[in-house]
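Contributing new records

If you add data, match the layout below exactly. Sequence lines come first and carry their own label; structure lines follow with theirs. Keep one chain per record. Anything else will be rejected by the validation script.
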Amino acid sequence: MRILLVEDNEETVAFTSRGLEEAGDVVTVATSAQEGLLIAAAHAFDVIIFDRLLPGMDGLNAVRVLRQSGIDTPILMLTALDGIDDRVNGLEAGADDYLTKPFAFAELYARLRALARRQPLAEPETTRIVVGDLVMERTSQVVTRAGVQLELLPREYRILEYLMLNEGQLVTRTMLLEKVWGYRFDPKTSLVQTHLSRLRAKVDRPFDTELIRTVRGAGYVLSAP
């Protein structure tokens, strides 16, 4: 299964992720509701685990946003609140199941499997993207060029991933702000340009040919020569 875990407690993240990965599942972790919403909107998952109490935005509100945006992925809500009203509120917000903390991993896993069986598994996402001698392994998030591993920061990785998925096509500054930062407005800063400059220093500068090209006044294009 491809599972999105939205949880801010480090111990719960470590315990849950380890168990799921040992079972052969692929786990993506978000530590805030806002980050979880962005990831859920950009990628397909078989199940989403959402903590009830998260910094910034309550888990209930985040689940409502997902459902209102048309994302129907099964959601298991985790919470330390075990009152009947709390469980009802979670289900009414759009969660498919509810599990209180502390929980046994075996029960969590059984519930996840049951939720995943309710709908066909999501089509597997392309796990490897290749543009010329640039290779991105999305499962491990390892990026190499000409066999040399590139050390990318998380934001740089997401920018490069989006550029590679749109190989040969113009990617505008607005598109990057929305897809990578989640901004629905222009912050009027050099945010994109600064990150692109750092990314190009790693992807292009050490090599003979450039893959990332600036289209003046429009955006960026990544393509093989």
